[in-house]
Amino acid sequence: MKNDQRDYLHKPMRVGSFFAGIGGICLAFKNAGYEVIWSNEMDKSACKTYRKNFSHLLIEGDICSLKPTDKIFKKVDIITGGFPCQAFSIAGHRKGFEDKRGTLFFKMLPFIDEYKPKALFFENVRYLKTHNGGETYKKMKKVLEKRHYYICDRVLDTCEYSMLPQHRERFYMICFKSKKHAEKFEKYGWPEKIDPKNRLPFNDIINKTADEIHYFNNYPWYYKDAIKEIDDKSAFYQWRRVYCRKNKNGVCPTLTANMGGGGHNVPLIMDSRDLRRLTPQECLRLQGFDDKIFVFPDDISMSSRYKQVGNSVSVPVVQSIAKNMRNILENLEE
Ligand SMILES: C[S@@+](CC[C@H](N)C(=O)[O-])C[C@H]1O[C@@H](n2cnc3c(N)ncnc32)[C@H](O)[C@@H]1O
Questions:
Q1: Residue-level pLDDT at 98
Q2: Beta strand 169-176 with 150-157: parallel, antiparallel or unpaired?
Q3: Pocket of ligand 1 contains residue 80 by CB under 6 Å
Q4: Residue 234 contacts by C-beta under 8 Å, 6 or more apart in sequence?
Q5: pLDDT score, position 4
Q6: Which of the following is catalytic: 26, 85, 175, 252?
Q7: Residues of the chain where predicted confidence (pLDDT) is lower than 70
C-alpha cells in the first residue's frame, strides 16, 4: 500500500497539549499530520499569540485548577508537555522540586491516568536529566513507568538535527504504552544528524537592517571598546557581560526567554548598518517558524515576543520526532 493511501485511511491521531506557550510543539505535531484538539496555557500574552495562529480550543488558566473530568476536555491519543524549565535550567537557581515550577510535570498525571494516551512527548532543558545527581529525572521516570509507559530519552542539539543554525540542546522524552513501539522508536525514531553544509545560511535568517530600537548603541550595557573587533557581517556574536564573543561554528547561541532585556548571553549580529540584537521575527525563523504565516498580534510587547519565542521549541526537530512517532504508532501493531 502506498503511503498516501495509508494516510487517507487513517484518521489523524488526536493531541492534547499542556504548557503550550505560543504553540511550537502544537505546530510541529500539526505539521506531522496529527490533530491538536485542545491545549492549555496560563500566560495571557502567550495565549493571545496562540489564538492568533491556531483555531482549536485553548484553555487559558493554571493547570493546577483543571480536572480531566471537566467537560471541556476530550480524550486524546497523545499528550505533549513542554513543562516549565526554570527549576532545572542552568539560568535559574535549579531548586528542582523545591520550586513550585519544578512540580508542574506531575500535574499532567491525572490527565494521563484518565485518557491513557498511546504516547507522550515531553521537552525540557538538557540539565533536567542530571539535576540533583539524576534523582529528579528518576522520580519522573518512576511515575511514568508505574503507569506502564516505556521511555526513550535523548539530548538533541537543534543545529545538529535540523537545518536551523541555532545551538539549542534540549532533552526529549518520548514515552509509549507499547514496549514494541518504544523499541522501534529507540532504533529508528530519533532524527538523523544533518550535514552541516545543509544548514540554512545566515542571510536566510537575518534581515539587512532592523528598526532603530534593536541597535546596540541604545543599550546602557554598551561598551564601545568591547565591540571594536566585530567586523564579520555573516557571523553570530554573543554578549558575555563585558565583552562580545564570536560564535565560531557559524550558529546562533541558544535563544533565551530573557534576551529582550539585553545583557549576558544575548545573541548579536553586525548588519549593514551597525551592531544589533536579533528581531523577534528573526528569532521565530531560528526556531523554525515560518514568519510569513506565524505572527504576533500587534499589541504584544517587545519583551513578551522575545520571551515567547525564547521559551518555545525548534519546530523542525519536534516535527521529525512527531513524524517518526506517527509512523510507528500507525504502522506497527502494539
Ligand atoms: C517552556 S514554556 C513552553 C513553550 C511551548 N513549548 C512553546 O512551544 O511555545 C512553558 C510554558 O508553561 C506555562 N506555564 C507555567 N506555569 C503554568 C501553569 N501553572 N499552568 C499552565 N501553564 C503554565 C508558561 O506560561 C510557559 O508558556
A1: 64
A2: antiparallel
A3: no
A4: 202, 203
A5: 46
A6: 85
A7: 1-10, 86-102, 220-228, 262
